[in-house]
Design a protein that fits this description.
With 848 residues, this protein is mainly beta. The protein is built from 15 helices and 41 strands. The strands form 8 sheets. Strands 14, 15, 16, 17, 18, 19, 20, 21, 22 and 23 form a 10-stranded antiparallel sheet that branches. It starts with 37 loop residues before the first strand and ends with a strand.
Length: 848
């Protein structure tokens, strides 16, 4: 049971395939690490300790990010998803006031920048050789009453000695289950009271680091911040049923408390604030996107609604510079607290939550025949593969808005129940309020929606949302926000009455929505009944489904040659949880090529031969077979990229918009990421001894998935022909001028060996494309046919020269119209070749 210093462990927890070699079943060694489309290397492992402070890294590792501490130091931060007595209490996190918290921690690890930049691709040894220091992200914390937390007491009026998840609005502490031994036929009840802290931070999951002025001077947050939230609901796990065998449950007790903290860390000053304006209902992730306005912030608020179903997708709109009373906060006043100055200038004192809503015509278009706010209508739409993929909606607030620290509310009295209130009359004859917006109904959903991902294009106000409950993926574009956020205010409350959005269903939750290219790896663990033939991660083996299943982690990376979503599933897959990449069209957000992902890695699973062999990355840490999951990714490319003169970009150069500009200027194969893996099966040994809760790992990785130059496809509305171009200016000039942009038709590979030629036929008025030198030469040599060579639009592989992993582009011809069409979509090809359509198959035109 060795305890290692941070970064000393080199064995990887991520795996490329199920272990099938004796060398992959050794304690303290990696499994199969021949990853087909990625490369991984360990940064740190839960249970390792700081050599100076002797404090351990805790788990599960979850939300993560990185930034420059100074020009020579990369700071990696991650938070642990920990549940105190619901799992295992972590060691105490001591604050300046003397109060102690167990449960989740937020760790930082500082690395030498030069070594960090080359670490992934060199053989310089373990990450410990570049380690500088570690610690916790803050040492002061404020509660839902707006007070700096001090050690716990039960005096109701001493509100500083309280934490919201076990405190009622009047200051009453609600104690956790005290437990009792077994008696006769009555089973034992676990004691849930804390022993390692006054309070506990409950399950910090997805996190987000947001630098100041990310979208331009004065736009976005005013300070560098870390956003996080306690998630879900501690309900019946921590609180006894208040009426014994009666109808009330522990969840009702939890609903009467201040709920779960939405929090922001002032990174510079190492202070954490609870932000009730963001909600008290528990979030997977709080993530800003571009508000397009210096006076407002826009934050995606993803998840849980205190486990009260249903509820819509939500965002928060906050007005910068204003207090909870709607009045300006004087940043220069000596009488205004630093708390209020910080929260106000970041738009976190005066604001409101908004939920997605649709009108009756939209519901009908999407196949929703019964509009009922009490039902999970969005789930029905997302799992209907035949429903339209695009629609418009509005985001409306409820009647609730947090109005200040001096008037605290229980979570049950906030917005959580209002999303579904539509004026129904209960069986007892009581009529509920109607909280639906006029002419609209909240497009309610299961509240298990986990990570969102922000569009890295800082000129856009878009994000993509994992719909974990259904396995779907949906894109949201606030395309009119520049006009609406500051002007759409008929009630004159300083906040918009609603926000308009265009929605795109990127992947449905239906079987067949996604197939993962495993690159001849991703073999699932053997099971005589469920996986006797060693199926691969091209589908979800346990669910027997070609789709995403319980997608959790999500990150959107933008490179000069590709936009990529990195997806992590959290499905309890016994055969290995998947991490994969999806290339998407940067305009339409649709997956490229159609319905295909690229396998990066898998992990864990109760059928894993490594678990059955009782081995771990750190010898002696194996505890028992459990499921695993990857949980998020973060792009660190800007921190490791060197300029033409060989120097790094400075902290000042990467500030504001700088980091995104650098990242998006580099091809995908130059991008470097960090990520985490939760590995509870490896929670014994040093993890248990160091009170680090559940095991896991933090790593660097990169990707080598098929990329290339986008070739855009447009429809000529006059004659129905299709036009292809790799020129963005040409695409934009034609879009709307008689042409409809249909998205990326395909991507020409960077290493293609055959030119793709474009001809224009002046007599017919259409374009023709070929990757055949013989066909090109024949057309050039026969001018009477009317074809003029316009050049090439990229390099491809000829029809008979495909390489492993390439995608065929099918060529079809319509003798009646004389038109050709080119597509990578099997569905489109099959539809065009249906009887009576007039199209004939000309086979594979070329490969990309």
């Amino acid at each position: 049971m060795p305890t290692r210093n941070i970064g000393e462990i080199v064995a990887l927890m991520p795996e490329a395939s199920t272990p099938d070699q004796t060398s992959e079943l050794k304690d303290g060694f990696s499994g199969d690490v021949e990853f087909p489309y990625a490369n991984f290397k360990v940064l740190a492992t839960v249970g390792e300790i700081d050599p100076v402070t002797k404090k351990a890294l805790t788990g599960y590792p979850d939300g993560q990010a990185a930034w420059l501490k100074d020009n020579d130091t990369v700071r990696v931060a991650y938070q642990s998803e920990s549940y105190a007595t619901m799992s295992n209490e972590t060691y105490p996190w001591l604050m300046e006031t003397g109060v102690k918290f167990t449960g989740s921690h937020i760790h930082f690890i500082d690395y030498d920048r030069s070594k960090f930049a080359t670490f992934l691709n060199d053989n310089s040894g373990p990450a410990s050789q570049m380690f500088k220091a570690s610690g916790e992200l803050f040492d002061r914390v404020f509660n839902a009453f707006g007070l700096e937390v001090k050690p716990k007491n039960t005096t109701k009026t001493d509100l500083a000695a309280k934490w919201g998840n076990q405190t009622n609005p009047d200051g009453t502490i609600v104690e956790f289950i005290s437990g009792s031994p077994a008696s006769g036929t009555t089973p034992a009840v676990k004691d849930m009271r804390l022993t390692q802290g006054d309070f506990f931070f409950h399950s910090f999951c997805g996190a987000w680091y947001e630098p100041a002025n990310k979208y331009g001077a004065g736009i976005g947050l005013a300070d560098d911040v870390w956003l996080m939230g306690e998630e879900w609901n501690i309900g019946s796990s921590m609180f006894a049923d208040p009426d014994g065998s009666g109808p009330l449950k522990g969840s009702d007790v939890a609903n009467g408390t201040m709920g779960l903290a939405s929090m922001v860390v002032d990174v510079k000053n190492e202070i954490a604030y609870t932000v009730p304006a963001l909600g008290q209902a528990g979030y997977e992730k709080l993530m800003p996107i571009n508000s397009q306005n210096k006076d407002y912030v826009l934050i995606v608020a993803s998840g849980y609604n205190h486990d009260i179903n249903p509820a819509p997708l939500k965002v928060y709109v906050g007005r910068k510079g204003y207090g909870a009373d709607g009045k300006v906060v004087d940043q220069a006043s000596a009488t205004v607290s630093e708390r209020d100055k910080f929260l106000a200038r970041n738009g976190l004192l005066y604001g409101q939550l908004y939920g997605m809503a649709a009108d009756s015509a939209t519901f009908a278009k999407l196949g929703i025949t019964t509009v009922d706010a009490d039902t999970k209508m969005l789930d029905s739409y997302l799992t209907n593969a035949l429903a339209p993929t695009t629609f418009s909606a509005r985001y409306y607030p409820t009647s609730f808005r947090w109005d200040g620290f001096n008037t605290p509310e229980a979570v049950k009295d906030t917005e959580v129940f209002r999303w579904a209130q539509d004026g129904d009359t209960s069986s007892s004859g009581v009529k509920e309020a109607n909280s639906q917006p006029t002419g609209y109904t909240f497009f309610n959903s299961d509240t298990k929606v986990e990570h969102p991902a922000a569009d890295p294009d800082i000129t856009k106000s878009r994000y993509v949302q994992n719909h974990t409950a259904t396995g779907a993926l949906i894109g949201v574009d606030f395309n009119l926000i520049a006009k609406e956020i500051g002007a759409n205010d008929l009630d004159k409350n300083g906040l918009p009455d609603y926000l308009s959005a265009n929605l795109t269903r990127i992947l449905s939750g239906a079987n067949g929505a996604l197939t993962v290219d495993t690159g001849n790896k991703g073999v699932g663990h053997f099971d005589a009944k469920l996986n006797p033939n060693l199926q691969t991660a091209q589908k979800h083996i346990e669910a027997n489904k070609n789709a995403m299943v319980a997608p959790d982690g999500l990150f959107w990376a933008k490179a000069s040659d590709a936009d990529v979503l990195i997806v992590d599933e959290d499905s309890g897959n016994d055969f290995g949880e998947r991490k994969f990449a999806l290339r998407i069209d940067p305009v339409t957000m649709q997956v490229l090529p159609d319905a295909t992902g690229y396998f990066l890695a898998q992990a864990g699973g109760e059928k894993n031969p490594r678990a059955l062999a009782k081995v771990a990355a750190n010898p002696g840490d194996f505890q028992k077979p459990r499921g695993s999951e990857f949980s998020g990714s973060w792009d660190v490319t800007g921190l490791v990229t060197r300029k033409a003169d060989g120097t790094f970009y400075t902290k000042a150069e990467l500030a504001g918009t700088g980091n995104q500009i650098v990242e998006s200027s580099r091809p995908l194969d130059e991008h470097v990421f960090i990520g985490v893996l939760q590995q509870p099966s490896e929670s014994g040994g040093a993890v248990a001894a160091n009170k680090a809760d559940y095991g896991g790992q933090i790593f660097q990785f990169n990707m080598d998935i098929p990329t290339g130059t986008p070739v855009y496809r447009l429809l000529d509305r006059a004659d129905g022909s299709h036009f292809f171009t790799n020129n963005v200016k040409e695409r934009d000039a034609l879009t709307g001028a008689g042409f409809t942009y249909e998205g990326v038709g395909f991507n020409t590979p960077n290493k293609g060996t055959q030119a793709l030629y474009r001809f224009y036929n002046s007599s017919k008025g259409g374009h023709f494309y070929t990757a055949s030198e013989a066909e090109k030469n024949a057309l050039v040599a026969t001018p009477s046919l009317g074809y003029a060579l316009e050049g090439n639009i990229g390099n491809v592989w000829a029809s008979g020269a495909a390489i492993a992993g390439s995608t065929p582009v099918y060529r079809l011809f319509n003798p009646g119209s004389g038109m050709h069409i080119f597509t990578t979509s099997q569905l489109e090809r099959s539809a065009l070749l249906a009887p009576s359509t007039g199209w004939t198959d000309e086979g594979i035109g070329f490969n990309v």
